[in-house]
Design goal:
- It contains two helices and seven strands; from the N terminus they run E-E-H-E-E-E-E-E-H.
- By secondary structure, it is an alpha+beta fold.
- Strands 1, 2, 3, 4, 5, 6 and 7 form a seven-stranded antiparallel β-sheet that branches.
Length: 113
Amino acid sequence: MTASRGDIWLINFNPTKKSNEIGKIRPALVFQNDELNSGGYPTTIVLPLTTHLIDDAKPLRYRIVQSGKLEQDSDLLIAHIRSIDNSRFIEKLTSLNEKQMVVIKKLLDEVLN
């Protein structure tokens, strides 16, 4: 598994402990920097996606348009940032560009500040 910042991968989020935690097998955006991604670090920081779309939900959501193996438009769940074990990665689906990543970083900063 070689994930890079900006990649969207299919990830196994099961099991979950609480009903408000993200579960299931679903796409997620790799947000962690590539120095850690390529350095053998055992976990990766990701942001999960959902196909349950809600319009105008910024800063909590960011719309990702279907591309590559990502089969449906999806909302990136900004507030559900999570560190996962690298064994949870299943398949790379697509990648976002740097402009999209800058917008997502600003949304995350807004949520965290």
